[in-house]
Amino acid sequence: RENDGPMYTSLVTNLPKEVMQYPDTPFPADWRSYLHHSEILQYLQMYTDSHDLWPMIRLNCKVESVKREPSEDGDTWIVVSSNQSDAQKGGGEASSTASQTTTTEQYDAVVICNGHYEVPYEAPLPGIENFKGTVMHSMYYRRPAQFKGQRVLVVGARASGTDLAREISQEAAEVHVIDQSVKTSHEGGTFANLSRHPVIEQVHSDGTVQFVDQTRCQVDVIVLATGYQYCFPFLDNSLLYPFKTRGLLPPLYKYVFHTQHPTLSFLGIPGPISCPFLLFQLQAEWVAQVP
């Protein structure tokens, strides 16, 4: 659904399909190398079909808690989940009249694969609390038309920040990008209305943004392309530790196994990475081989 998650309308991969595919399931040969996000979804559905995975997937299901229960034979894990009782498997949707049910199950091991692109990280900017314009995270961006004629500041110049700045510049009057690798402000390049600046020194209430090189610009909108936090709301905080400014993370061996409770493992923690699907598969194979 369009308003769920961080995927904007025009989003395509910044990796060629040849390095994204699972080893045993190539992308169709006639597909282009850089794919729209809808094609990635189609590929994952094809993978699920070919490996008969639908019976093992619960859609419309939320994990409420994962709790450790010590025993003489080692840890066991109590998993509480809730779901719509008539949710269909294989891509169906629950009806609006479905009733919610809660399930409690016990497992010898749990693998956490919930991703980390759902809880935005909003970088602190000096004075932003006084800014009277619009402040939004890039997660909620969908189309450039919403910025028509406006002066836009994009905070962040990695993949999503750069992509959004270029796209927004098609409609906006001005686009200003905060790039930590830049020492002094400069304009130009492929997009005449796009400028790059060093880090922010101060955001003023009248919309003026001052940079550390003492240059300034006026903006109507600030878009925070500042990434995401790790979030495991279903885990007890005793299993987690603060990770810089990016939320809580467990102590992990090789970014996979909980160092204190190795029957709890995590897939997909490292990022950004060049071959995400391949990494996930290799991590999953390793976890499956551990007795």
Plain-language structure description:
With 291 residues, the protein is of the alpha/beta class. It is 14% helix and 27% strand. The protein contains 4 helices and 20 strands. It has helices at residues 17-20, 37-50, 159-168, 276-289, and strands at residues 61-69, 76-84, 100-107, 110-112, 119-120, 134-137, 151-155, 174-178, 186-187, 194-197, 200-203, 208-211, 216-218, 221-224, 228-229, 241-242, 248-249, 252-253, 257-258, 264-266.
| Integer-rounded radius of gyration | 22 Å
Mean pLDDT: 90
Q: What kind of sheet is the major sheet?
A: 6 strands, mixed
The strand count comes to: 20
Order of helices and strands: HHEEEEEEEHEEEEEEEEEEEEEH
Give the overall shape: globular
- Sheet with most strands: strand arrangement: 6-14-7-8-10-9
Structural class: alpha/beta
- Give the N-terminus to C-terminus distance in angstroms: 39 Å
Provide a count of the helices.
4
Quaternary structure:
single chain
Helical content (DSSP H or I, runs of 4+): 10-25%
User: Uncertain segments of ≥5 residues (pLDDT<50)?
Assistant: 87-97
Beta-sheet strand percentage?
25-35%
